[in-house]
Structures are given as structure tokens and as C-alpha cells.
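User: Teach me something about this protein's shape.
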Amino acid sequence: MDLFNILIQTLGGLGMFILGMKMMTEGLQATAGQKIRSILEAISSNRFLGCLTGAGVTAMVQSSSATTVMLIGFVSAGIMGFEQAIGVVIGANVGTTITGQMIAFKLTKAALPAIAIGVCLKYFSKQRNYRHIGDIILGFGLLFYGMTVMKQGLAPIKSDPQFIVFFTTFTTDNLGGILLCVAMGAILTVAVQSSSATVGLTMTLATAGLLTFPTALALVLGENIGTTITAQLATLGSKNADAHRTANAHTIFNVAGVGIILAIFPFFVTIVQTMTLKMGAGPVGQLVDNEYINSARYIANGHTLFNIINALVFLIFLPKLIQLTLLISPKIKKSKERYPLPTFDETFIDSPIGALAKVKGHIIQMSKFAHMNLKKTSTCIKQRDDDILGERDAVEEHLDSCQKVIIKYLATISQGEINTAEAKEISEMMRIVNNIERLGDSMENVSKMLERIYDKKIDFSKDAKHDLIDISHEVDTFFELVINEMSEKSEGFYQKALVQEDKIDQMREDMRYKHIERLRENDCSVDAGVLFIAMVSNYEKMGDYCYNIATGVSRII
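Assistant: First, the predicted structure itself:
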């Protein structure tokens, strides 16, 4: 027996399985990305609806880790609250069992045809959507072909006494043996970063007769713990407390769930066997051509039942889970920077949905910062405030820096595997950020002019000052309308934006006309008139920038 070839073939098969899983998940995310995002953004605080949504989304993308990473992106962005996310995480654990159920159907004969079709679509199709469908089909083929290669690699060791002795050390005859199996399952999943892959490997070992059904089930419990590491890695470097809490809730949920099942493990094994038999499967010990042909089905059902029981328990006791999570989650220290810049990491690059959600959150924060300072600047029309006017350089520098950081991250995302809708969204987000920065430039111009007016003691007429207050109020209202739309969609938003933009344009024309009348009647000095027109023009430009932002928001958000 060639141990080296067995190892290479088994690891190679596992590698193909993981590659197939990754390709299938990325393809599914790419084809259904916008739909998934709209579903997640529409989640209510109802824990049961959140759970169903999480199960559905995870079934769509075939990865609970992908769903959890997306959720952390949404929570980090402030689009979704911590309590909303927990319900979805609970559902994601149920949805991920679909992969195990699919593997148990033994679709290995479809593997090579799927690889052939997938390669043709992925590498020879000119349309991006067909290439993503190719990813799904190719990933499906590689997944099942990887299972076949692993099975063939393990075949020679079935009768080897040394390997039989090794595998018999994993027993569920006592609590120590069960805990060893759980620990091994967790370690394997942490190593390969995919519970679906380790569940697939467990099924292969059980089918080959190297693991008993109870042992395989204990390993699967451990694999449910190991999968939580992905969510923890997604929060590394994040300063968002709710993102850390979401990852911690995922870990607590799985660890506590495994603890509950371990307390009734023999009873749980019996329930799974009874249920699977009643569903029409043959006995778990049925041997055909030296393979335990029903093992995979029993393991898949055990995996699904565990997560359903776990979900039901924690949906009922969700407030307790939240309390425990808050208790053990460390408080994130607030940044000492006066104006902290957006922070991004590479974790979300493989999940464009999560990455773009995080970008959206930072764009909203950037918009709110610009809006707050616009309102402050406009108050100086009525009365001078040197603290506000003195901040303009720092505010403008912060907006410029935000623009650069966000654009750079969007460019990084665009270099990965994205679909047509995501490419359009990235383009529109860049446009939105650029217009926020330009709005900041106009705001800085107004601040400089106000300082000049006060330093030179230039007096505006009562009507001129009233006009400036009016147009600044309309720009403020417009910007607020746009920011609210970023956070929550509303009916007829684009028409409202169009009306507001036309209104500001008309105000500028009316104010210019009235200004000429004041000059004729000698109610306004030339110096005051020049600055008045310049300020009105800058506010009108801000209205244009708000309209440009509104256009981008209406197209993508």
C-alpha cells in the first residue's frame, strides 16, 4: 500500500471539493447578489422571519460562512442591527445543511458532464452572466468529482489493520471519545475553512466504513463549531461593536447547541436513525460493494436535525442569547481621532455583497458628516462663529481623504469577480462619493466668503440675507432627503429630487434678478453684490451635486 499516493489522492480530492464549493458559492452570489442584498436589507426585527430569510439566503449561496460574512458587512455598515442579524445567523445554520443533503444524493455521475459544461460557459462565453452560471455548474461538478477522488483515495486503507486501529480511536462509547470527535471536527473545519468540505470528508470516511455513524455525527457537531471561525476572522480589525457581537453570537449559538445535543447524544443518534428509516432510507449498516451506501443520508439528516433543533431553541431564548453575547463581547474603544477615516480590510473582498454594504455604510457616514457641517456653515449667514469657520480646512481635508479611501477600496472590489449589477453599483458609488467631495468644496468656498464678509464688515441688505438663508435651507432639505433615501427607500424619491433641483435653480435665477433690482435702487453695494452672487452660485452648485448624488442613489440603493 502506497501511503503517499493515498494521502495525495485524498487531499487532492478534498482540494477539488473545496474549490468546487468556493466556485459554486461565488457564482451563486454573483448571479443572485442584488436579490440577496435586497432581501437582507428588507429584514424586519421579527426573529422568525429573520431565521427563514437566513435559511433561504444560505440555501441560495450554499455557504453559511458567506452569509455570515455578508451579515457582518451589513452590520458594520449600520444597515442592519445586531439583533436583526442574530436571527439571520440562526437561519443560516439551517440553510447550510442543504449542501450535505445534496451530497447525500450521490450525484457523482453528473460530475464530469457538469465540469465539461461549466468550463465551456466559464471560459468561452462572452456574456458575464453566463460565465457566472458556468462557475455554478463547474463548481457543482468539481464538488462531486472531488468526493469521488477522495473515495477512491481512501479505498486501499479500508482493510489495513493500522488504519483501522487509528480510526477506532474515534469512538462514542464514552464522553471522552465523543468530545475527542467533536474537537477533531472543529479543528479540521478551522483548518479548511469550510464546514461543507469537512462534512463531505466525514461522509466519505463513513461510506468507506472507516467511521461508524455515531462517530461521524459527533464529528459533524464539531464541524458546526469550527465553521464559526470564519465570522470571527471577518471582524478582525473592525471597530464596530455590533459586528463583533454578531460573530460572537454565531459562536455562542453553535457551541451551546452542540453542548445541548451532547447531553442527549445517544438519544439524538436514535432519533436520527428512526427518522431516516421512516423517510424510506435503508439501514445505516447496509453494505453494498464494500460501501455503506446509506451513511451519507443519515449524516446529512443528523446535520439538518441538529441545526433545526438548535434554531428552535435559540429563537425561543433569543433575548438570553443576546444578553450573553453582550456580556462576553469586549467593548470597542472609540477612536481618538477627531475625524476618523473609513476603515476597510481584505476580509470582504471575496464577498462583494458584504463589501459593497460596508462601503454604503461609510458613504452614508461621509454624507452625514458633510450635511452636519453644511448646516453649521449656513448658520454663519445669520451670525459669525469663528469656531465653525475655523474648521473648514479640517472638514475639507477629511472629506478629501474619505473620498480617496473609499474610491481606492471600490477599485479593489472591481478587480475581483463581480457581476454586471455590482460593476454598475461600484461606478455609481464612485460618482456619489465624488459629488459629496465637490459639495464639500463649495461648502468651503461659502465659509471663506463668509469670513471675508465679516472681516471686511460688508453688510448685506435684509432681502439679500433672507435670500441666502432661503437657498441654504433648500439645499439642506435636499441633502437630507438624499441621505434618508440612502438609509431607507421611499416612493417617488427621484421625482422629489428633480422638483427640489429645479426649485433651487429657479431660486438662483430669481435671486439674481432681485439682486440687479437692488443694485439699480442702490440698496446694495458692489462688493456685497459680488459676494452675494458668488454665494448663491455655490449653493446652486451644491443643489446640482445633491441631484447627482440622488441620481446615483436612485439607480443602485
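Now, about its shape. DSSP finds 23 helices and two strands in the chain. The CA atoms of residues 78 and 288 lie 54 Å apart. If you'd like, I can walk through any region in more detail.
User: That's plenty for now, thanks!
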